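User:
Note these tokens:
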Amino acid sequence: MVDPLSILGAGLGVTSLILQVVDECVKGYRYYVHAANMPEQCQHLQLRVQMEQQRFLNFATVAGLLSADGELSATLKVNRAILIAVLAEVRSVFDKYAATNGRYVNLSSSREVDWEDHSELGFDDAMELLRFPPSLKKQSTFPFLKHEKNRGAQRRRGNNLRKIVMEPKRLVWAIFDKDRFEEMIARLAELNSFLTGLLDGSKLDAIQEATSASYHEILQMKNDIKSLQDLVRAFGPESRSASNAKIPEHLPSPAALDESLQDERVRKYLRRLAELKIEYTKIGQMSENVKNSSSYIQSINTKLDLELFVFSGPLRDLIRQNCRTPASWKDKHVWIEWKQSPSTYGVPLPRSGEVEMRLKLLTELLCFEKPSGFRSPTCHGYVQVEDENDEPMFGLVFGIQDDALSHSFSIYTLYELFHEIPKPSLTARVSLARALAESIYHFHAINWLHKGIRSESILIAKPDGAQPDLSNPYISGFELSRPRIMDNMTEKPAFDPLRDLYRYPAAQSSCPYQQYQKSYDLYSLGIVMMEIAHWKRLEDVLELGSLQDLRPLALQGVRRRLLGDVDVPGDQQDRSSLKSTYLDALSAEVGEAYKDMVEICLRSDEIEPPTVGNESRGTIGIRLQRLMDSVVIKKLRQLEVALGND
């Protein structure tokens, strides 16, 4: 290993020496991530450098190496000599490869590392701040947006970071030795694992959480097929091939190995997500113009023979009774979710042939194997029947494969369970909310909008004679989901008060055509989380009476009613006295922390609008992703653990 004093000089104090070499490592990563003349076929290697950059920055942040006060964590103070040696090795790795393969081109002027630089988001987004609209920060109901004491370890904050001056130069590859470059990346990966292994367990967990979030953000920014294919290669198993460098005996190799294995598991999962996003993007491009893709669509063989299904009664009667029809198919327990007839509301209705072509694309996507975090049931294909007007009607066929279930079980919707079983323990309810939040997080990671989140579309298997496992729900209800990149609401839902009750006001059936947003899904999630907390259907929480008597105007006012955002004449004091009793009741039922999570979901539309005029959809997506990760999912996990330890 390189002697750091021979590189940096012995005239510095130990802490100053550490901070200086950290700065050099930050610069090295930045130069390599933005290096010019990278061969096209090696773009995935640049992504691998970016991933190691994320790991290094997460380590440096959690360890306090980037903070303005320069205070090292206790474990690093004990291992300062090892820390200096490893950091110096990181710098040496960069210097050696650049010296033989590249050159630095001078630019106009030096500048500081901008921890809030959004212009290059996607390549250097590790230090981007989670920004909220100023009006939302002032809301007294959002203390978690004002007080960020516990988020510094996971989300970097620019006002407490040291200034690092970048020299006015850019790295340009003169030649490119692919094999040596891969060896360099493998060595950087080893060194990052060594560094992380120097920290104690709690900080190790924080780094792993932050790194996983960083990888998700890289995935969020990649939307074209070529970039996603590069990302799949970057996440691939060859990305961690062993280098010829030997592990120094004095480094804590068991801890380093554990960290490396955990990072490998995360990358494997993200690789599957990237593969699914490629499929989503391909199908999305075809669904934009089904006519030009008709030959491929016709080759999709997901239509099932209705004669092979066994039903408990006449099919038309079953369809009239419920939009979800249980059946037996090839000795499997399945169910069919019927696609509702779309609403007109000024939008031209697609012909049945076009509907079927789009449905083929959707089933192709639904049949694609998805990571477990999606919590979606297995899609077997679709069926077609004639409705009472002899018009074609389509249904998606789903089933579940769970070895833990007995052969005899029933599928219940969460909507049904609210009346079927007594209120479960708070631990079980929090576990259910956490599982659902994680599911939506994974859908949104690949820009897949669900559009139909409600307790009626959440399915739970209940073994006969036993209680259901609420921590293992399934997300269904894809009747409005559409595999499109710019997911416009080209097909409005038919008027249904029960379903509109869960929809964001602008997404309800009575509203004109407009673009669907991720925040609309989060709003629906907030509604379901409120139901879970009370273990009541929303119409019972709001005491609405007969749903069939509800008119669009009343449904449009549900959000304002839940949040207490009512328009009242008079002074501000009168207005504040009408603070939502529903949120107060929620806090009394499950606590302030859970209430805050529900409220942020209900108000997520206030987060989604651009904070600057030219903010990209990718940047907005990352803000929402970080919001879900840090303010909802992480806190639900913490609450679940705390309740489990009681």
